[in-house]
Amino acid sequence: MKLPDALRRKQDGDPLDERIAAEMDALDSALRGEQVDPEMRSLATLASDLRADREEIGSDFSARLDAWAAAGFPRGDRPGASRSTQPSAGSALERLRLRLASTPQRRLLAPVMAGACAVVIAGVVASRSGEIGGTSDSGNSIQGQTQIDTQPVAPSATDSGSGAESAGSARSGSAGNDSLNGGLPGFAAPNSKGATSSRDAASNAEHFLKPPGGNRGGNLDKIRRNRKVERDAQLALKADAPEVPDIASKAADVTERYKGHVLSSQVSGSSTSAQATLDLAIPTKNLDAAISDLSDLAEVSTRSEGSNDITRPFVSARDKLAGYRAERDSLLKRLAAADTDEETQALKSSLKVLNQRIADAKASVSQLKNRASISRVSLTISSAGMIGDTGNSNEDGWGIGDALHDAGQVLTVAGGVILISSAVLLPLALIALLAALAIRASRTRARERTLDE
Amino acid sequence: MLDVITAPAAAIPDEAEAAFERLYRSSRDDVFTYVRSLVRNQAAAEDVTAIAFERAYRRRSSFDPKRGSHRGWLFGIARNAALDELRRGKRHAALLTDPPSDAASPEEETETTLRRETLRAAMATLSTRERELVALKFFAGLRTAEIAEVIGTGERAAAMRVHRTIEKLRSACDEAA
């Protein structure tokens, strides 16, 4: 068995017997053709006799071998009597096997590892492609998000304002009054009077239950025709400190110009730093134009808009209202035809409850309409150094800070790819190494066994 | 023949090429003789010799002088190639035979001839491992340290094995006499 170098050296700890050492030296001298001690002459004779039996290389083969060596041992040209082990013989697979067998493992390791790394990195990058690359909040970035509210409004016996709550919006409106005005003072309510007669209620119900053209399309058609989307926007402007109050005032003018109004405003600061915060309510149909005019007042730091589709809860709320009205009409008819006092009292009690429900439903419908018809805009005007300023002094909106940020993201992603690749490749490399060691040990044992057979 | 190349495979390609060329020239015949004694077939020996030098040439840059001598490294490669050939020969049931030896005519019988024939007969009694040691020591002319590198043992163990093999040969010759 072939021992590792370190073990071989360790086993040579004990010195060799002197006589044996002398014999080895005598043999070496005899083989070099030197004179040996008379005591060792028999060894010299033995060496000479054994050397005489040495099979010498043939002249023909030695010439071919020398020519091949002089040419740099080119593949496929190996001299030898047998051609079966030539690289040019055999199948392509056999040729490849022979070529790999003659190539040092170190030379194979690099391309194999490079290929494995490339495959793993490609896999990691492909799987993370949706997450690679960051987003920058600085500059004129516009973010939009659209949310579809899919929660239906479920009518219940104690239903009160559930339409607004189930709509999924954070905004709240006034409820509890019989007006369709959502409770925003100073703003003209949409022109919607609602149904007041049973015929209207029924026709409304029919209208919602049986869209024109039959049942084809059904609820989807209804939703499409009655689409309600609430929108909001956030706008941050940057200006010099002394200009902030003036710009805030101009923003209020823009709001009023587009039939909106300022819900709240706050201006603070000094001659060196100032900030203004305004909460605006602008009709949704004028929102885009208003945002555009507001953006023209000063340099825009950030701008984002959001939308939330509330069509389904609106349609549900309106259906519920229509249902309650139809029910009330039915109760009124029964009340007119009541014979007894008890029956009359019972019907009046039911009517009372139903009227409350109708009021609540009306409020829900009104609130949802207002949410769709009025958009909230959050406007911030700040000078350099105030909160909200990204510190970007570059007029184009991208500077050294952004570059550093982006570079950091690139390095983070690259580091992540390397880490994940290593996590995959290192165990594979370890397994490959163990397999290679096992194969080498097996091959060595097989070779040694050959000598014993 | 015994000129051991100790120059390492240098970083500069020309020096490595020159070192390998020197090794080739000094070891060509010895490698063939050693391989021939193992595989015991002329054609197979030529094949294996060529394979050994080809492999050594391809791996010349991987030689580490700290691990041994150039000749020991080369003969290690040759040994593996020869053993692989022996395994292939056994698997395929190839007929590996020695060519018939030239028998000396009665007129040429001398003491030397008789002695060598006795030695030849004694060689036939050796195991493959022992025959390999004889080939490494006497045919290829390797030093004990180099033999130890080739067969993968310590120098002392290699010396002991060579000594035992020689003693076995002597005993066989004495018995025959």
Unreliable segments of 5+ consecutive residues of chain B: 1-11, 92-102
Secondary-structure element order of chain B, as H and E? HHHHHHH
What's the overall geometry of chain B?
A: globular
Which percent band covers the strand fraction of chain A? 5-15%
- Biggest interface and which pair forms it? A-B, 60 and 66 residues
* SS content category of chain A: alpha/beta
For the secondary structure, the number of strands of chain A is 6
Outline the structure in words.
The complex is a heterodimer of chains A (453) and B (177). Chain A is an alpha/beta fold. In chain A, helix 2 (18-31) crosses helix 3. Chain A starts with a helix and ends with a helix. In chain A, strands 1-5-2-6-4-3 form a 6-stranded mixed β-sheet. Chain A has helices at residues 5-11, 18-31, 41-52, 59-70, 92-102, 105-127, 162-166, 198-209, 218-225, 244-257, 287-295, 311-336, 341-373, 400-452; strands spanning 142-148, 229-238, 261-269, 274-283, 299-309, 374-382. Residues 134-198 and 205-213 of chain A have low confidence and may be disordered. Chain B is mainly α and 177 residues long. Helices cover 69% and strands 0% of the residues of chain B. Chain B contains 7 helices and no strands. Chain B has helices at 13-39, 42-58, 70-91, 111-124, 128-139, 144-151, 155-176. Chain B is globular, with a radius of gyration of 18 Å.
